[in-house]
Design brief:
The chain is mainly α. The protein contains 1 helix and no strands. The chain crosses the membrane at residues 30-49.
């Protein structure tokens, strides 16, 4: 869990948590996109190799 700083107001704290959550979600989306591209490349190479 995130360590809570007593000096921070609650709205700043929740703002930081929202930014953290959105950054984690976007990085997960990017990772899924990269995996999808790699799968397409592998499938294309396998089809080309199988066809020849």
């Amino acid at each position: 869990m995130l360590m809570r700083n007593i000096d921070y107001p609650a709205d700043v704290e929740t703002e930081q948590e929202l930014q953290l959550a959105s950054s984690v979600y976007s990085s997960r989306e990017v990772l899924l996109g990269q995996i999808a591209v790699l799968l397409l490349l592998v499938i294309g190479v396998l089809l080309r190799w199988h066809g020849s």
